[in-house]
Amino acid sequence: MLSTPPPAALRARPLPRLVPAAAAASVAALLLAGIGEVGAPVALAQQLASGTVDTWGANSYGQLGNGAVTDSSVPVAVSSANGFNNTGVTAVAPGSAHSLAIQNGTVYAWGLNGSGQLGNNSTTQSSVPVAVSAANGFTNTGVTAVAGGGAHSLALQNGTVYAWGYNNFGGLGNNSTTQSSVPVAVNSANGFTNSGVTSVAAGNLYSLAIQNGSVYAWGYNTFGQLGNNSTTDSHVPVAVSSANGFTNTGVTAVAAGSAHNLALQNGVVYAWGFDTQGELGNGTNPTDSPVPVAVNNANGFTNTGVTAVAAGYAHSLALQNGVVYAWGDNSKRQLGTASLAVSFVPIRLTLSGITAIAATSYSSYALAGDGSLWVWGDNSRGELGDGTTTDQSTPEHLLPPSGYLYTALDGNADGNHVEAILSPAAVPEPSTWALLSAGALTLLGLGRARRRRKALA
Questions:
Q1: Which parts of 175-246 are beta strand (E)?
Q2: Does residue 422 contact residue 14 with C-beta atoms inside 8 Å?
Q3: Whole-prediction pTM
């Protein structure tokens, strides 16, 4: 804790700039040089591990990774196991009932594994992290992004996409319908070369990737979720069609719902695929679209300058100027309104200063700039993390553990659990006055001790 500020007369004088916390002890030592032992100059906050993963919600298959199979309505730390020590994690991605995390460039997975979605050459579920196997060119080093689907997984290693797990509809993109319990490389096809990929996303039975600003998709396509003006499955990547203002260039982000998708092109949101509840946001009665359509302007949303998108089972979220907008299904109040009415166009939530958004099947999440969360919607499995299983019709504030900030989170459109990354809150740098005060207090203590020794002599 910093000391009491100096008197007004001293405050009028300019003080030297702040001293980095790491140098505090050295500066205090210099101030007190030659005057006996030096005590701690300033009490700093406890140093906490950075990149710690907490999870909460459904856990029937061990998808929370804490060694149990019991749901949790409060955040729990993922167990350290099999080389994973729950620190330094840089990315997380839940699947429907499994989870993924990147630590030091290595992918770990836990949860349901009946289709090999953990990628460890097994189909046995695990309630603690296991390392994904190195296979077929995948070395499990230098991984920069992951995505979890219904029962398959994707990883981006040096710009190349690898996939594993369920594959009956070609969601692995390797021109096969055979599931794989180890990573396989996605095929190059139809303009997709499987190099220089910058982002991946996974829906229920299909996959998406951005390469050189263009979106490619593969897998299940009954509802047009591949966006290529077709409803025929594809076992290799196909380019999303240009339509309705979408040119499939300059795309910076994609989000996969259960069977619909969102893409950001030059700050404008486009959507395609399943549209049972208005999740495409284009203002029409729900009609599936096999090509991208622009989300409507409505209720303050102008569909420009959007910075992030997220998709639940049948609802969608967008972030514009720190404000959250939502549309689609509202059966669990995942749009953040007391009404249960669906919305075919974006509606504005009473939140601001938001930096990231996420969704699970029927719940929504927003990460605020202060490192706290806002949560709303379905809470039947504890997926809101507030210690209850009561649904929330409007955003509820969820604070991080003491000394931490939430820095990232993610959910899955077919799941009911959340992964979040925590990092320590910044420790304020002590001012020169604080250091001088600490030195003065130490000097005062030493002076009193000397006087006491004289008195006893």
A1: 180-185, 197-202, 206-211, 214-219, 234-239
A2: no
A3: 0.84
Kindly state the DSSP code that residue 441 receives in the 8-state scheme.
H
pLDDT in tens, 398-409: 999 989 999 999
Angle between helices 432-456 and 24-31 (to 10 degrees): 50
- Same structural domain for residues 132 and 223? yes
Number of domains in the chain: 2
- Same domain flag for 291 and 440: no
Say how far apart CA 343 and CA 449 lie, in whole Å: 74
Q: Give the tokens for residue 43.
A: 């009490």
Residue among 295, 373, 384 at smallest CA distance from 334 = 384
Pair (291, 434) in one structural domain: no
Question: 354 with 313, same domain?
Answer: yes
User: What 3-state class would DSSP assign to 73?
Assistant: strand
Q: Please state, in angstroms and rounded to a whole number, the distance separating the CA atoms of residues 58 and 240.
A: 34
Q: How confident is the model at residue 429 (pLDDT cuts 50, 70, 90)?
A: low
Q: Which residues contact 73 (CB under 8 A, 6 or more apart)?
A: 56, 57, 379, 382, 384, 385, 386, 387, 388, 389
Residue position matching structure tokens 């003080």: 15
Distance, C-alpha 198 to centroid of its chain: 16
Structure tokens at 315: 């609802």
Residue 9's SS3 state is helix
Give yes or no for a contact between 209 and 197, defined as CB atoms under 8 angstroms apart. yes
Q: Which residues contact 172 (CB under 8 A, 6 or more apart)?
A: 152, 163, 164, 165, 179, 180, 184, 186, 207, 219
Identify the three-state secondary structure at position 10. Answer: helix
pLDDT, one tens digit per residue, over 82-95 is: 999 999 999 999 99
Torsional class of 433: left (φ above 0), alpha (ψ -120 to 50), beta (otherwise): alpha
The b/e string for 419-447 (b: 16+ C-beta within 10 A; e otherwise) is bbbbbbeeeebbbebbbbbbbeebeeebe
